[in-house]
Amino acid sequence: MTVQELAKEPISNIPLQYVQENQEPAMPTDGDGTSSLPTVPVVDLNSLIVRETKDSELERLHGVCKEWGMFQLVNHGVSISLAEKLKSEVKNFYKIPLEERMSYKIRPAEFEGYG
Prior knowledge:
Layout: H1 3-8, E1 42-44, H2 45-49, H3 51-67, E2 72-74, H4 80-93, H5 98-102
Parallel strand pairs: 1-2
GO molecular function, one term: metal ion binding
Protein name: Non-haem dioxygenase N-terminal domain-containing protein
Region (Disordered): 18-37
């Protein structure tokens, strides 16, 4: 089973082919032995627009991108229905043949496209 096939439906268990035995869990622990996982940084789009908080939020965003490479964006104004529509369209895109998808590939000196 490929990762793409796994992503099509929710899973409740990790397939055995992806489990590596006899390894220490990669979970950070505090001094008392309890685990505390880091949380994904949250960026507030509204704070990037408001003049009073724009500079500090831009600086924070820059640091988050350098350190994490990802973030959760809040107060973006995108409705749940639009997000669901986008998700559906992405699924449909991956149903078309690879040859056709590659016609949308990123071309040299361009920043938009597939792949």
